[in-house]
């Protein structure tokens, strides 16, 4: 990569998150000289895309930045010559997500966007599209970095790593949120903290936490066990059992609640679905409000209300990655990359989420040493589910899909796995061309 | 080992299974020249031991065998100079087993002797006793082979491998029963069949089945899916889903039903517990009847009724192992031994159940190659549970016990894990000296 | 494989060894009902092939066997419908072997048929031919087993495993010769002995030796150290240092002398080359004498003189393998097969030589556990050489060839590696089409 | 570690290198607030130690630093309360090194301080002493970091990692020298360069080199092949073969010449030994001159002549490590640490030299991915030698020592290994208490 100004292609540019990304870009122009942002979306998102485009132009103008802003349905034009391709799209929109949440609940199984059968369904819809995008990148921007924050980020990144030659890093706002929450409970600056993370996307542990050179892992676990606030917008804040945290000896991520506190989380989900609607159904409303705001000619900045939406720090996580690569920073980030022996009992070619040194070379994981059985059992089980899901999604393989769901720890047995799989395939029929053979 | 006549020490000699073992010994005297059988039991089993001793003498006399039969409470005398030590005891008797079955059911969790929280409780009671026995063997019969069929056989053998220098092989009647059932459904002789097994005790798969040189794995899966009889006395014969078996691509063991058909098995267990009582409660009755039979002076052979008891082929499994070792046969058996790279993603020092070549050298596993994610996730998860259980049992470590149960796929979450653990520790208080510190 | 009578295809049928193979077949007809032997050779071997064909017919007639004997240049006809394909050819004949022995000696480097630069040159000539044969087998006899004893057997088998779908086992007479020599020094029957072997072809150790249930490894090492006869026809019997054997703790194979006693072996080779000629040059004379004998109409059996030739037990090694596969014996043999974790620090896809259970399923290695650094360093170094050699041979890659020789422990440094490589490529120009691009 | 001022203990403080270290400390006082330096040495080095102490005081005074300087024979006093313990001693002094160089040469084997039999002898002398030091650290300064640059640094660090609980990092000036030489040939600043290093001490490769975000590995190899200066003071600058470098695909370190260009290096060593004396014999002279200079009351800075001595960048390498740990920098350094899966085919508990992120947590290696056979064979062979050497040195085990030398690629065979071992043991008798049992 040369140090010339950058072109960013944003796939799924009509997302309500985009203003945060734009704000992040404008804040960092001295470090990351962006000359062009090309937003692209599909036909169904045309209207939103136009709103985002207009708002972005107003933000760029206000910042006095010299930058081309383009918005189109032409994905190939967006990718052509891009230095970074950022993927943040949602196949099937929020309605598909609502289905992902509702279907498992019918069977008394966790219904969640990225974890359990919901994440499985989302992977089936998303992976064919991302592979298609990658074909364009291989052809039109072979040296570009694709930063994927389309969920389920681990599964999507694994498909890209296994089936394409695109240089990619998957990222997520969970690790950065963990850092922020821990900084708050320890009453320190985030940059004074270091977390040694290893696991899978939405199943990542901080195996050790360091504050100004001191190992504070036990202190953090104690605070979380004592009830310190430790959750994210979209996850119910079930309290953690202090004995369990002590036995675990590593700091779980908020999403671990689905695995460790399954029954309480399920009960909460069912109650909420009945009353306020599922998370997707709530978000639909937020989205409508946001786009109304975005449409105002008076608005030339990211509105505060966006923070309610949930994806805190996404912009920072992704643009700090761009900074680290572009400026060859060799700084530590938690990313989704090829395992390559980092967790030695997992195959080399799967994707894990871990602390890594990011620079012009991409991301090099740091060695965390052998993990103990208290985390390795769950990682192995969920990774088996993920490997099977990627194969099912790429090849439209029913058997692999069935084994995937049967291997997911949130699905109690094969009877439920089959019922849920069949309903997912039926409901998502239009988005699953790979299964229509 | 020299080719001189053999002394067998049978720990837990007062078991109702013993007559089958005695019959097996008498049948094989030409291959295995046993000169002495020393049965040993604890005070509480004194009466049963006397019945077994008398019956054994009658059986030996009828066979005209030249063999010393001893029965005592003196474990050290039994072990002194033994060539094989066979362990088949049950700490706490059938009442403890009934507790193991009842406690989890209260929490809507599978209640089973060897799998799930029931097996966990049994491991906590058994492991301290087996380590104590091993100290005697190290001192009094350091060259003896200990053949362990005390359940949970995998966990118990792992504790022995990790914490003693005793030469040991763990064994189980499940693999031999699988072979017998497959022979029946394929209408062939068992010796024409070969199964390539690898997994854990009560969680073992035949990854390939061979009949006279043909790979018949798919045929067997088809027959099982079509409803061929494929269960054991003590496991409810839930039907298998043909699609699932096809997706799995390996032949599960009957105990896999607890993991793959959890809800149906739980429902069946709850119904049975309500009506006929749990399996232990049923067995208590059978046991009483058996010992009444055994007491008859007229009886000088294993009575037919023993077969109802459930442990089919235990005698064959263990004495064929004695034969293979004593006569250096290099024959294939499915046994519980140190992993040592057989399943490469598991640590070297854990115990697995697998096909192995047995001879004077003990058991050498055969390489089965990398296992796929469809089985590896579950093996890894259950092995993590097992590693934590062994540590909890050896060190009386509450935290490890909690993580063990939380890692068991049959326990839905940590809330349940904690409730069940606390009740197990309380109920088994008298049998868990390691936790009374 | 069905139990119908068998067709054997013997590639390189004009070899002087063939009468031993024929004798072996005729001896085993009750266990291995061969209905057809098809010998095939290249144009240059036409005359020899005719001699072998005639002798074979006389042997078959004398034995009164009902068997078709065919000899032709038509490799495809030979392979068509074969059950076993046996490969024993020599590209370039004995003259090429003489070059393999002479070239390294010029540079003060061991000159040997299978080890060091000689084996490297032979691999370059042989691998393209074997891959060509495999294409025919894939097309014309996809269920056939190829038993390869073409040297260097480990390298050739690795190329087949990596680049074809042919079912193959590589074999060698070294392990069986070790067993025979150890039986002689221990004054026992070979069948009473078991060796646990693992390593690479011509670099295999017996890590433990068992005699009637006793571990006799230390006794064997002591006898070898004390000067017991322990070599093969074609390897100079340099005495072994008893201290070294004790430190090694495993029984080396005779070929290990090239690595452990390099300077003495080199001195002996140079002296012999000067006086009697290299081994190949000596063998040329023996071959002429043998074929003269074979041509005699009066001869209808394997002549005694063949034993001087060197390949003792080749016939037994290969036909016992046929027996084990055809009759599904599950017996132990030392073979060259895919590693698949047997030696965990080597890649799965390389070929090793090890004890394995052979039956209708092919060969399943037995687990020997982690090997210590005293053997692992050398195995790893030689395997690196082998991996690079296979790549060089398949792709005609000069760089890989240079790295291969530079990685061979018998080649002192890269200067020598380059000089030797260049001379090998030049001398073998006609046999190395893959390098002529 | 708290942010309070630091105490440094320097074991082997009387070394001629010490003024460089002192200069480095004084240069960095703003980042590393050292309050005390305690130099310690043995009786034989008393005189030199006094010279160093006086010079240090003059340097500290000139810098106007507020720092206690202590020099004593009392190792325990030095270690008591130290934050960093730096080990840079030489058991037996330069005379022992001269023996290490001379003995192998008698047998036509590379005679070098750290590589081959010379490094082996040095390890035997050094390891018992370092373990003794570590006992003091465990008792008197359990939280201190020991930075070891006593050679052979990899072997010494491995002994510490395996046999003590001391927190340690081994370091070497080779990687930093590689960076400096590459910066010079690429005409760039060293800080613009990043090398991805992995291997063993004095056997480390830069698998990839990056300059301002560009992969320049091939360019560097080309320049080295074309004759760019690429050696260190103490290593003869044999030219590199461009074809070989291209085939290797990784940048070797200057010490690789001993392995890759063995015969030329040996010839050069023999010629030099005859004329100027071995390296140690030359250094003795330099040392005398240096200490004469150091004694001058007028000198209050590191004299230029020290640079001729050879250990360029040692001070920078070690003090940058102190900086990274003390200030929790998370910066990249090449260090000797526990493998822990970084090179997956080597055991977890061996020490490797690799790029790592250094901070208050110590050093976390970065994952470099699977290495190819072109480097893995040599690493595995040398690591086997190292593992055996550590065992020989710790336990005084002759057999392990013999296997170690026999496994070293620079020793041609076991005859030479034995002769050299016996002479090393005899010559070093006074320094090898562990072998006198």
From TrEMBL, chains A, B, C, D:
The keyword Metal-binding applies. Pfam families: Glyco_hydro_4, Glyco_hydro_4C. Gene3D superfamilies: Lactate dehydrogenase/glycoside hydrolase, family 4, C-terminal, NAD(P)-binding Rossmann-like Domain. Its cofactor is NAD(+). The keyword Hydrolase applies. Binds 1 NAD(+) per subunit. Keywords: Glycosidase, Hydrolase, Manganese, Metal-binding, NAD. Signal peptide: none annotated. Residues 197-411 form the Glycosyl hydrolase family 4 C-terminal domain. Belongs to the glycosyl hydrolase 4 family. This is 6-phospho-beta-glucosidase. It comes from Photobacterium atrarenae.
